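Suppose a colleague, Dr. K., hands you the sequence of a protein chain of 113 amino acids and asks what its three-dimensional shape might be. Before reaching for any lab equipment, you can write down a predicted structure in token form. Begin with the sequence itself:
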Amino acid sequence: MHPAARLQFERVVDEYAKWRAIPEAERPPAPAWWWGPALDVRDSSAALTPPSCRRLGLSAGATYADATKLLLDAMSGQTVVPWPYDFSRKVASTDSDVRDLHPQPSDDSAFQA
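The predicted structure, expressed as tokens, is then:
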């Protein structure tokens, strides 16, 4: 499995665990951006790391394919997909610090005439 696919999938695992921690009545729909990383590893028989198995609630020795099924089942039947900011208001995303950066004043001193 490509290291980038593994990294992206691990990010989804982290978000999924945070999403599941929200009470079901308050939980936003599962985000569509989970599909890509999940589908990238859907045929992998490689074992998940023990921490990923725990975060997903899967038994030790579960595979990436097992985890993909779990994620896709979480999204099945949804008719609405949240916008990224709607989702991240309830779920502290692993990369929210990047999305939440505010514009900084530009430093044009290098271009003064």
